[in-house]
Structures are given as structure tokens and as C-alpha cells.
Predict the structure.
Amino acid sequence: MREICQMFDRQIMILDELIAELEAQNRNNPLNVRRREKGKRSISSLMEEKSKEIPPSIE
């Protein structure tokens, strides 16, 4: 039983490493980079629009 658990632990570790590699590849994929940058620009423009809509507080 202990051997089986150790075998599964090794396999899980291998899978974790593969997942990390795939996530790194996805982050560096030009299409994903472009989408991420587009999303950042969209959020920035929305934040600018919202800040213009909010009237200054009266003190």
C-alpha cells in the first residue's frame, strides 16, 4: 500500500510539473499576450471613464 501511495505521489508530481510548463507556455503565447494587453487597455479606459463620471466631493 505504501509503495502504491509513493508511486501515485511521483505521478502527481510529474503532472504538476507538466501543468506548470503548460501554464508558462500559455502565458508566453503571443495570442494570449495580445489578449491580456487588450484586456488591460479596456480596463484602463473603463476606469478613466468612471473617474470622469464621478463628481468631485464637496468639502
Q: What stands out?
A: The mean pLDDT is 90. The chain is about 85% helix and 0% strand.
